[in-house]
Specification:
4 helices; 188 residues; 15% helix; alpha+beta; 29% strand; Trefoil (Acidic Fibroblast Growth Factor, subunit A)
């Protein structure tokens, strides 16, 4: 680990360590929640069935992604399933085109950030799949806030609880918005 602003050599050494422990490594199957699988997560809400969870400028967003989308968009919407660092019965999502960067929540918002190895980050980057709240798809509960699930709201991604006080916790369409279709990856 480094502190302050690391040199390019320090950044390269940290990235090398990340790759050496298997992050950013070869993947296995596609479209399943098995560790090593490449996936895309599609929304199940009727308004948004062509929308996929992707990262853009380090934030998780929910745009439409299709076969005619740019290669960048399709790569940003592809995740590698990893065993959850805080719980082996849960999962983490590593960015396919940014090895060592993971989807994590911070102040309710979902971000793509480099794994720093802290207990807070590993808990924030661990999500536990459950049974579809809407009868379809898979919800992903936050490991450290189990009543909060990955939810799309206003084209952004949050950890949300049904009916709490934040705008993204609003009850209308909550069960659909937290249910995801685990599908084959968009990346070529």
């Amino acid at each position: 680990m480094t502190s302050g602003i690391p040199t390019d050599a320090a950044d390269d050494a940290v990235q090398s360590d990340i790759v050496s422990v298997g992050y950013g490594g070869a993947t296995g199957s596609s479209g399943t929640l098995s560790p090593g699988s490449e996936i895309s997560l599609k929304a199940t809400t009727s308004c948004c069935t062509t929308d996929c969870l992707r990262h853009q400028a380090d934030a998780a967003v929910l745009p439409a992604v299709t076969a005619s989308s740019s290669a960048l968009d399709r790569n940003d919407a592809t995740w590698i399933v990893r065993r959850g660092p805080a719980s082996g019965s849960c999962v983490s999502f590593e960015s396919r085109n940014h090895p060592g960067d993971f989807l994590r929540h911070h102040n309710f918002k979902l971000l793509r950030q480099p794994m720093d190895g802290t207990a807070t980050f590993t808990a924030d980057a661990t999500f536990c799949p459950g049974r579809g709240k809407s009868g379809t798809g898979t919800p992903f509960a936050s490991y450290n806030y189990p009543t909060r699930c990955l939810r799309h709201y206003d084209c952004n991604l949050y950890t949300a609880s049904d009916g709490h006080s934040n705008a993204w916790d609003s009850a209308p369409s909550w069960t659909d918005d937290v249910s995801w279709v685990v599908s084959s990856p968009w990346a070529p």
